[in-house]
Amino acid sequence: MDLHAEKILILDFGSQYTQLIARRVRELGVYCEIHRPDLPSEDIRRFAPRGIILSGGPASVEAPDSPRCDPFVFEAGVPVLGICYGLQLTAKLLGGRIDRTAHREFGNAEVEVISARGPFSEFRPGDRVQVWMSHGDRVEALPPGFEAIGRSGNSPFAAAAHESKPFYGFQFHPEVVHTPQGKAMLRAFLFNDCKVSGSWTMKGFIDEAVATIRKQVGEHGRVICALSGGVDSSVAALLLHRAIGPRLQCIFVDNGVLRQGERAQVEALFVDRFHVPLKTVDARARFLEKLAGVTDPEKKRKIIGREFIAVFEESSRDIQDAEFLAQGTLYPDVIESVSYKGPSVTIKSHHNVGGLPEQMKLKLVEPLRELFKDEVRALGRELGLPEEMVSRQPFPGPGLAIRVLGEVTEARLELVRRADAIVQEEIRAAGLYKELWQAFAVLLPVQSVGVMGDERTYESTCVLRAVTSVDGMTADWARLPYPVLERISTRITNEVRGINRVVYDVSSKPPATIEWE
User: Fold this and answer.
1) Is the pLDDT of residue 381 over 90?
2) Helices then strands, each counted (H, E), the chain
3) Quick one: residue 5, left, alpha or beta (phi over 0 = left, psi -120 to 50 = alpha)?
4) In this structure, how many other beta carbons lie within 10 angstroms of the beta carbon of residue 367?
């Protein structure tokens, strides 16, 4: 079966939750794509969606410069679901009225189901469901042919449906976790109205991706892949290896700012277990020489990025007949100019191998460009990647260089490397690893007086950082159990000679960032 045969089109009006809508749809086994709000009718026809979802957005539909969709959306003959701004826009375009007076509503609310239709088909009239509201305007009068199917204390038209056409609207956000039954609503819309079968799976994706890679690369093409040991590049490498076998050449650069045992782990996994062609480049001394005396974090990042490109390019010269460069680019990285104002996502400078394609004159292979992070993890499991790799917490591109505040030296790197290894061991032992977005150690350029045995010490300070998050955009400091904090602190001060003080960071993002540099 063609996994892309049943597609849902999501038009993005600038909501912070638009990608979350897409992830929820994908989780239900349905392929979807996010596109700009004013996508022309000819592009909608070409996309051939089974259904269309209009996202929320920060604008008021009454504002003169507010975004609009092509009226063809309501003439395409497919079900339409408007969410928040999407409902208001539906009402505005089809003849309803919008109220801009003081009816703003943010946070939890309760919606009473009036009619068990469309997205509410899994409920009964009279049911009360918890939802998440986030809107300034509200619909004052529905367009002709529409009726309320749900109401709240503040929104008489909290949910609406057309009497005969599969057009629906929610004033609330079904895609967020604060609407506990929101997924059931989306499922009813997708499977009952859009008539999809839920065939989008990572198991099926493998077969399609392998065929696509073989077609792009050809029978004799060779691909170079920068392997970092992270989830994205690891999954991309395994997928490519399944498609073209020994015509893939992975390059792993040891830049000297990796975690403890990382190089050995990558080599054991990819060479010994999966038999992937791998070239390891030991560039530790070269990177540390370039970082000597540098304390500014942005300069550290630029040096590491620039040096990586140089090392990678040099290492690739003796790979004969290489025509393609593989990157672990994900779907959020390639959504361009689809929101109301500007791109929805800006690619971080250290995320991909910036500059390589242009400098090396290689064609790009991006086998993961359709996938979200959670889908990449699921794909990794299908490909046989061990769980400790699949569920690995994010690790910054500049590595430990930005977790050593101040000058980066081998001695200081070794301190944070050993401290971080203890953090990872204890977090895993406590069963907390998967609950946390990140947990790691940071070495401060600060020394303090301590007492060990009968001796006075004057040694470094280590920060323990642990946060919870959904996507890294915002984060809250983790309330780790005191016994876990005690074990980590005791082990670091006992086992890492050179650190005599451990402190815990209780800052959230914002105002702080997750990493210290």
Assistant:
1) yes
2) 15, 20
3) alpha
4) 27
Beta-carbon contacts of 321 under 8 Å, excluding residues fewer than 6 positions away, are 220, 222
Q: Which two tokens stand for residue 96?
A: 């309803």
Instruction: Spell out the long-range contacts of 152-159 with Cβ–Cβ below 8 A and sequence spacing 24 or more.
Output: 152/109, 152/110, 152/111, 152/112, 153/109, 153/110, 154/103, 154/105, 154/109, 155/103, 155/105, 155/109, 157/87, 158/109, 158/111, 158/131, 159/111, 159/113, 159/114, 159/119, 159/120
What is the rounded CA–CA span in Å between residue 450 and residue 501? 8
* CA atoms within 13 Å, Cβ hemisphere of 294: 18
pLDDT value of position 358: 58
Q: How large a percentage of the chain has pLDDT more than 70?
A: 93
Which residue is catalytic, options 105, 175, 307, 426? Answer: 175
Give the pLDDT mean for 380-406.
Answer: 92
32 is catalytic: no
Instruction: Identify whether the C-beta of residue 21 lies closer than 8 Å to the C-beta of residue 55.
Output: yes
- Can you say whether residue 195 is alpha, beta or left, with left for phi > 0 and alpha for psi between -120 and 50 degrees? left
Q: Is 350 noted as a catalytic residue in this protein?
A: no
Of the candidates 35, 135, 173, 241, the residue annotated as catalytic is: 173
DSSP assignment of 292-341 equals: TT---HHHHHHHHHHHHHHHHHHHHTTSTTEEEEE----HHHH--S-SSS
Structural domains in the chain, CATH included, are 7-193 (3.40.50.880), 202-390 (3.40.50.620), 408-504 (3.30.300.10)
pLDDT class for 89, splitting at 50, 70, 90?
very high
- In angstroms, the CA 484 to CA 426 distance is 7
Helix (H, G, I), strand (E, B) or coil at 185: helix
Catalytic residue among 6, 35, 69, 84: 84
243-278 pLDDT, tens per residue?
999 999 999 999 999 999 999 999 999 999 999 999
Q: Is the peptide bond before 483 cis (omega within 30 degrees of 0)?
A: no
Instruction: Give yes or no: 173 in active site.
Output: yes
- State how far the Cα of 5 lies from the Cα of 206, in Å rounded to an integer: 16
What distance in Å separates the CA atoms of residue 29 and residue 8, rounded to the nearest whole number?
Answer: 11
